[in-house]
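hi! just following up on the protien thing from before. the input was this:
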Amino acid sequence: MSENPSPGAERHGDQEHGSEEYGAEVREDQEHGSEEHGDGRAESAVGCLLAVAGVAVVGAFALTRAAYTIDGGFEAHARDWGVILVELPLILCAGLVVPPLTYTAATRWLRPWQAALVCAAVVGLGLWGLAAGWNPPQRPDPGYGPGI
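and the predicted 3d structure came back as:
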């Protein structure tokens, strides 16, 4: 005997009825899944927008404060590679990661518009803390004037 039954040897009855129910369940799951998938797309889009906005805001804030350190002044005497290679990338990374993570954590308990307000507050507090604690050199060492 062969292991594959012939097409006419299928049992009709419980299996057929069960397969219809299974098909209906699968279709319902697919319909609900597409709605959930759409919500996931919206959340992903908001997360990406917050990441871009966070990098833009933090970058504008940090790069203006570190402009002299990057330029280095006269003959690049005051260029600080620690600021350029360590501090600025860490600040930009925080601007990339903190807003979307704050938003996703806040949406667990709050509505999306409330989570956006929480995200803005966290970014504002972060910028305030950065302004209070991060002071890259702003002028050249004493004794160096504007030049001849």
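The helical segments are 14-65, 67-71, 81-107, 112-133.
The CA atoms of residues 97 and 148 lie 46 Å apart.
cheers
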